[in-house]
Design goal:
This is Helix-turn-helix transcriptional regulator. This protein is of the alpha+beta class. The protein folds into two domains: about 90 residues, Orthogonal Bundle (434 Repressor (Amino-terminal Domain)), CATH 1.10.260.40; about 170 residues, Beta-Lactamase, CATH 3.30.450. It has 13 helices and five strands. It has a five-stranded antiparallel sheet with strand order 2-1-5-4-3, sandwiched between helices. The two termini are about 40 Å apart.
Length: about 280
């Protein structure tokens, strides 16, 4: 671990980011160039003290999970992220591991969308990053451990997940999730991450087994979804999915489909965050 080089790199990258680039208001009395340490800590989900110790070269070796969080918070490019891992004494993520770190370009797009709910997803439906509006609409999807981090697994293995979606759309959403997973399985044949997920889904859900046997294939692109939010009620949202050239990551953007949804989304922004019930988290 190259503590001094790591400290210098993190400090310079923090100072190079404008608050507006990550959705933080840049007030007139601001004196700090770039982000404050507490802002980096908030974006990365770690303590301010740890960020300070990293920048002062006094920290223990950070884990790969912490490095991934710092890479997202500091909007590092793929090359910068690999450099960060090297300085911390870790091997950079391999191709499959890197797919679980949101790409810098998608994170910049996420920041620019502002109050429009949006999330960066892996091709298996794992939430890699969300903006505040997305968290308000569907909860923090990045918190799920194990197989629960995949939207398709939550849908079939945890019935409470469906409480966040209109009942009349349940069958359509189930078929869409399975058809999209079929497309991924075709692109990534013999990939243990994909085959293992399919096997575990077949073991826990008879519904999944039946739909998987139908061999429907459809890459998720555009759709309309009705969310049942515990605080503001029904929101009908248009969903647009933008995929990277290698189809390993996607940007999911949700826009109100009508005036009623637009008003409810505005109300949700005013109300802010609150603990979500156990059934929340059906988005995306």
């Amino acid at each position: 671990m190259q503590r001094d080089e790591l400290a210098d790199f993190l400090k310079r990258r923090r100072q190079a980011i404008r608050p507006g680039d990550v959705g933080i208001a840049d007030g007139p009395r601001r004196r700090t160039s770039g982000l404050r340490r507490e802002e980096v800590a908030m974006l990365a989900g770690m303590s301010v003290d740890y960020v300070v110790r990293l920048e002062q070269g006094r920290s223990s070796q950070p884990s790969t999970q912490l490095l991934g969080a710092l890479a997202r918070a500091l909007r590092l490019s793929e090359d910068e992220r690999d450099h960060l891992f090297h300085l911390a004494g870790h091997r950079p993520p391999a191709a499959d591991g890197a797919a679980r770190l949101a790409r810098a370009g998608l994170l910049r797009m996420l920041d620019l969308l502002g109050d429009t709910p949006a999330a960066v997803l892996s091709d298996l439906g794992e939430a890699l990053a969300q903006n505040r509006a997305s968290v308000l609409l569907g909860g923090d999807l990045t918190r799920h451990p194990g197989d629960a981090r995949y939207a398709v697994y939550r849908w079939f293995a945890d019935p409470a997940t469906r409480a966040g979606r209109a009942p009349e759309e349940h069958e359509h959403n189930a078929r869409q999730l399975v058809a999209d997973l079929r497309a991924v399985a075709g692109r990534r044949s013999r990939d243990p991450d994909v085959t293992g997920l399919v096997e575990r889904l077949q073991a826990v859900s008879a519904e999944f087994r039946a739909l998987w046997a139908e061999h429907e294939v459809a890459v998720r692109r555009a759709d309309r979804k009705t969310f049942l939010h515990p605080r503001v009620g029904r929101l009908c949202m248009n969903c647009e999915t933008l995929m990277t050239p290698d189809q390993r990551q996607q940007l999911l953007v949700l826009t109100p489909a009508d005036a009623d949804a637009r008003e409810r989304l505005e109300l949700l922004r005013v109300l802010g965050t609150e603990d979500f019930p156990a059934g929340a988290g059906a988005h995306p």
